[in-house]
Amino acid sequence: MSLFALVDCNNFYASCERVFNPKLADKPLVVLSNNDGCVVARSNEAKALGIPMGEPLFKLRELIQKGEVAVFSSNYALYGDMSERVMSILQDHCADVEVYSIDEAFLELLFYRQTESSLTDYARDLRGKVLKWTGIPVSVGLAPTKTLAKLANHIAKKRTEEGVFYLTPGHDILQELDIDELWGVGSAYKRRLSAIGIDTVAQFAGINEAWMQQEFGVVGLRLLKEVKGFPCYGLEPPVTERKNVMVSRSFAKDVYDLDPLTEAIAIYATRLGEKLRRYRQTAGVITVFLWANRFKNKRPDGLSCFSRMVELPIATSNTNELIHWSVAMVKSLYEKGTNYKKVGILAGELKPAGRLQTNLFVPETQLLRSAELMKTLDQINQRMGRGTVYFAACGHMPDFKLKTEWRSPRFTTRWEELLKAE
After folding, report:
1. What angle (nearest 5°) sits at the alpha carbon of residue 308, between those of residues 303 and 314?
2. Helices 116-134 and 76-93: crossing angle, nearest 10°?
3. What is the pLDDT of residue 265?
4. How far apart are CA 105 and CA 152, in angstroms?
5. Which of 108, 173, 269, 273 could bridge 319 with an S-S bond, Cβ 3.0-4.6 Å?
6. Tell me, what's the pLDDT at 141?
7. What are the E-state strand segments in 85-221?
8. What is the DSSP string of 348-408?
9. Do the beta carbons of residue 224 and residue 147 sit within 8 Å?
10. How far apart are CA 272 and CA 172, in angstroms?
11. How far are the Cα atoms of 47, 111, 181, 317, 413 from residue 312, in angstroms, in the given order?
12. 0.85 cut: is pTM over it?
């Protein structure tokens, strides 16, 4: 018998901050996005205060000044390392693991003749080991399909004290769950289902399969079968090649002038080139994005997002080429008077770097020399430090510093920031 388990870290970013500061155990806590812009993670106590996801920092100033909520800047080095530790424990205790996100993983449990009791005991033991060895609390949902396991995890987190729930098709609790609590059902699906009187997961499970396929296609049919207990999705294999690579960042202050925008995109194009070369890939298409400050938008039309895409003559990871095209796109998108908050560059149609594709106007020797130049540039910066050698388009300062007023130490990845016992 095959069974799926979804292990999900509870309020992951907030839990990582609490591991090294137990005084925060019962205190409302929020974690902010890049440049301390808005809330991207909340503890249960912060949710109880009514702080919504995406709340901008300036709306929390009063709560922070009163000491009613603890606030932290994003500490991705810490969160990434803690995630690896949690996933390592799961992989040590189960042979088949799909790391679904930074704080979630699906497990396929191939246990022969196991009872519901023995499986929930296994989940409790696994949950206890993760908590003991990392300090991160997790919830575990068990079910015969991935969709039901996701729903079981939601129940375990919201409706149980022990954080473990075993969900079977036709369980009575499905009558209490709204249809939008089901993985894969968004607002459009919910409206269409509500129009025919389908408001709960139990009602959804009773839909005729032929009608479901006719109205919602194969994807809808698979969702229905999963809810009924017939697995349609197995574990996904690890991603070995990336389909897209993006570099973006918000500014600490709104930017009005073109020069800082072109310097920023040149820096991000440099980072993009480094990533592509690290992954041994080249980009066939790049897209540049500009975002206006949506909270303080000064545009008469109210628009806040602008983008432009270009198909490159030859797929490349050459920093000079990426800077050339991205700066040109920023110049074409820029409008005087707009207060820009964020800029980014996305590489698509990625190809393996080893497949050299030329054209009539670019000789092969030129591409090979370009590759050698980038290799030398990377070696110098790796040996001497990032930004030792960079293109003049990046300006006099080789990076835009993140605003991290409340960042905690990177306890697990920096020797100089190790926790000290006194």
Report:
1. 170
2. 140
3. 93
4. 14
5. 273
6. 96
7. 97-101, 104-109, 138-143, 164-166
8. EEEEETTS---BTTB-HHHHHHHHHHHHHHHHHHHHH-TTSS--GGG-SSS-PPP--TTPP
9. no
10. 51
11. 46, 51, 43, 11, 38
12. no
Q: Which residues pair with 352 in a beta bridge?
A: 281
Six-digit token string for 238 = 């690890």
- Report d(CA 239, CA 258) in Å as an integer: 38
- What are the DSSP calls for 15-47, one per residue? HHHHHT-GGGTTS-EEEE-GGG-BEEEE-HHHH
Residue with tokens 């996904």: 236
Tokens of 86: 């949690």
Q: In the prediction, which pLDDT does 371 show?
A: 83
At residue 364, the pLDDT reads 65
Q: Which two tokens stand for residue 304?
A: 């806040």
Q: What is the pLDDT of residues 216-260, one digit of tens each?
A: 899 999 999 999 999 999 888 776 567 888 888 888 788 899 999
Q: What is the pLDDT of residue 78?
A: 92
Spell out, as residue ranges, where the chain has pLDDT lower than 70: 1, 111-113, 239-241, 354-364, 397-403, 422
Instruction: Give the whole-angstrom CA distance, residue 41 versus residue 135.
Output: 18
